[in-house]
Design brief:
Helix 4 packs across helix 5, helix 4 runs parallel beside helix 8 and helix 5 packs across helix 6. With 204 residues, the chain is mostly helical. It is built from 11 helices and no strands. The mean pLDDT is 89. It folds into 2 domains: 54 residues, Orthogonal Bundle (Arc Repressor Mutant, subunit A), CATH 1.10.10; 147 residues, Tetracycline Repressor, domain 2, CATH 1.10.357.
Length: 204
């Protein structure tokens, strides 16, 4: 291996180390417990070294957000494999909610934090994995609309409606607002609400 290749390999390994330390802090303490200085202390490098790889904390959070979508994709694999588009929508909803409830810190970063989105705005980057997932949901909605011959329904608007619904359910559950509706029954409420949403839209 030549000198240039070795340097490139070392750079990639250090970047990976930085992100692994950041991920550990995110999952242990949430994004408020993450900082450039704490990451530097964890990996025993100076903060200046971190800045050679990431412009600021928002850039690190953006990378972590993309990693979070990788985790979420594992939850979605079986759902997106469903052939029937209505069943697929129902399964996607279940998978989305399960991911959100089982991965609170990832979910907060990916769907409630403005910090990674500020990095996108500054660097003109796309929300690649998030948009890919939304595009898949939109395509599923198009197939469902076509199958049921639904008139005056736009697939993108339907996809947004469904996303808003499951996002709301996750946030209500994570902040224990569903407990106000009915104590110790959040999971049943989520299941019934998701079923009602599908039935109302598709009469199924």
């Amino acid at each position: 291996m030549g000198l240039a290749e070795r340097k490139e390999r070392d750079k990639l390994e250090l970047k990976k180390t930085i992100l692994e330390a950041a991920q550990k802090m995110l999952l242990a303490h949430g994004q408020d417990g993450l900082s450039i200085r704490k990451i530097a202390d964890e990996i025993e490098y100076s903060p200046a070294t971190i800045y050679l790889y990431f412009a600021d904390k928002d850039a690190i959070l953006h990378e972590l957000m993309e990693m979070g979508f990788g985790v979420m994709n594992e939850y979605m694999k079986d759902a997106f494999a469903q052939k029937d588009p209505i069943k697929r929508i129902h399964s996607i909803g279940h998978a989305y909610i399960r991911f959100g409830l089982e991965n609170k810190d990832w979910y907060e970063l990916m769907f409630n934090s403005d910090k990674p989105m500020k990095h996108i705005e500054k660097c003109c980057e796309d929300w690649d994995q998030g948009m890919a997932m939304f595009a898949s949901l939109t395509e599923t909605c198009r197939q469902a609309i076509e199958m049921h011959k639904m008139e005056n329904v736009e697939e993108q608007i339907l996809a947004l409606q469904l996303w808003c619904s499951v996002h709301g359910l996750v946030n209500l559950a994570l902040t224990e607002r569903l407990e106000i509706v009915q104590q110790n029954n959040s999971q049943v409420l989520i299941e019934k609400t998701l079923d009602a949403i599908i039935h109302t839209i598709f009469k199924k």
